[in-house]
From TrEMBL:
PANTHER family: FE(3+) DICITRATE TRANSPORT SYSTEM PERMEASE PROTEIN FECD-RELATED (PTHR30472:SF37), FERRIC ENTEROBACTIN TRANSPORT SYSTEM PERMEASE PROTEIN (PTHR30472). It is found in: Cell membrane. One of its GO terms (biological process) is siderophore-iron import into cell. Pfam families: FecCD (PF01032). This is Iron ABC transporter permease. It comes from Paenibacillus cremeus. Gene3D superfamilies: ABC transporter involved in vitamin B12 uptake, BtuC. The keyword Chaperone does not apply. GO terms for molecular function: transmembrane transporter activity.
């Protein structure tokens, strides 16, 4: 959270301290357009993705009642890798964009067995 103001000011253009503060007040400047259109939405999206990963990890640990539960310990990573290898062996000419879906299905199968 402390790095958000620093990340908003980072970029390829060289600005002094006065310019960093004034472009926030002038909404018609190109710097404020970059900040409002690109940087702030990316920062908010990265915060939401991080929060989603934290919640999913906490739910996984609470569901199986193991504080050390992680995707590689419970078999999700191995299931995804196995499904990807089997898919590559069975369908060698398939487009590469299909492989992540096969890996997701392979990771989903051990995940469905967790509540049991």
């Amino acid at each position: 959270m402390r790095s958000i103001p620093f990340r908003c000011q980072q970029g390829t253009g060289h600005r002094n301290r006065h310019d960093r503060c004034t472009f926030l007040l002038i909404l018609d400047s190109p710097q404020s357009l970059i900040l409002i259109q690109f940087r702030i939405p990316r920062i908010l999206l990265s915060m939401m993705v991080g929060a989603g990963l934290a919640v999913s990890g906490a739910l996984l640990q609470g569901m199986i009642r193991n504080r050390l539960a992680s995707p590689d310990v419970i078999g999700l990573t191995k299931g995804a890798g196995l499904a990807a290898v089997i898919f590559i062996l069975l369908f060698p000419k398939s487009p590469p964009g299909v492989l992540p879906f096969a890996a997701f299905a392979g990771a989903h199968s051990p995940g469905c067995c967790l509540p049991l």
